[in-house]
Amino acid sequence: MTSSVTDFENLGLSFSDTRGSGVNARWERKKQRSESDRRPLTNNNGNDRFIPNRSQMNMEISRHNLKTNEIDEEINAADKNQDGYKAALSSALLGENKQGRVLAFGDKAPEPKGDVVNNLNVLYSTSSGAADRKKMKHTKLSNRHIPSAPSRILDAPDMLDDYYLNLLSWSDTNILAVALDKTVYLWNAGSGEITELCTVEGEAEAHISSLSWVQEGGSHLAVGTYSGKCQLWDVQACKQLRSMDGHTQRVSSLSWNEHLLSSGGRDSIVVNHDVRIARHKIATLTNHTQEVCQLAWSKDGKTLASGGNDNKLCLWDISTSSGSNPRFEFNEHQAAVKALAWSPHERNLLASGGGTADRTIKFWNSQTGALLNSIDTESQVCALQWNPFEKELLSSHGFSRNHLCLWKYPSMAKVKELEGHSSRVLHMALSPDGCTVVSAAADETLRFW
Fold this sequence. Notes:
- With 449 residues, this protein is of the alpha+beta class.
- The strands form 7 sheets. It has a 4-stranded antiparallel beta sheet with strand order 1-28-27-26, with no helix packed on it.
- A hairpin with a 6-residue loop joins β18 and β19.
- The radius of gyration is 48 Å and the shape is elongated.
- The N and C termini lie far apart (156 Å).
């Protein structure tokens, strides 16, 4: 019994006293385990276990490499897609022949048979000048230089200083007709040759008062005289074909519409002549009260514009008979309406210019009768001429500057002013190619611009 108690005490001492044994107590082992769990997750050199050490990295180079790789991949993908699109497009257009071409230059098409083309030429062609003019209509002048000085100056002695006459006309065969007092002269613009066509005889005051070439062909010239006659001349044969009456005073304006010749006179009437028949006078228009100083047929040949010293502008239908009223009568001008010009660019557009007391250029719609615009030029308007290639209008003026002015339509901004004449610029005419304008002034000179 004594030995068993002793063993129990020894056993108890062995559980309580652990300093002499190699096994730690339970509470010490718990403490050691908790301290081990709280140990920081770092390596020996101080770096984070999950986040790399940025102190040893070049972040700029890394960012550049990342972007470069992404762009290269996108470019390569786009190139592959584009190559595939091109291949599909080529296959759809050209089929299996990858060497084929969509457009290729080859030999010209064979010429059609001569009889087909010649028949059309005979039917529609009138002269080489007209064909050249039609060809030039499709030529656009861009950034052109407009010289300030005339390209040529010709003397015109005895040019009458009369605002109401029309003494200049240029044919489509490049022949310029000029009336100097009692004589009509023809100047060939190609060769420079000058020919005297006719001279009127009679009293001392007799003179040529108006000129107008036939529209196509350029071989016939209408001449208005002081005595009230309208003469028709064949310029190639230098022969007068006929003389037509109808006026009691001088014929100051003429205008052609195919075979129809309209004449306006100091007797304030307009006469329409059919030059094909013996009884040529087919209509007499009597709305003006003073001298009819300008006539102009529209491009389509359906409307005749007449301007008079009574400050009136009248528009007449081609079907108007004697005694009928005009389609429109305009009284907005404050002086004689000498300058008239139909636009080659817009149908029914008419420009008119007034004398010293008016000094305006007005634009009209001949279909509706509306006044579209009016601009003060600050000087007498003597003549108007449209540019056949651009929407531009050339005007010639009298007192006080005696110059020519080129306007941009419809803004009416000044493009160019041409000076050189020392007296009012009474007349203008356009060359058949549309590139040259000749002006005639009371200073007895012709200037080509």
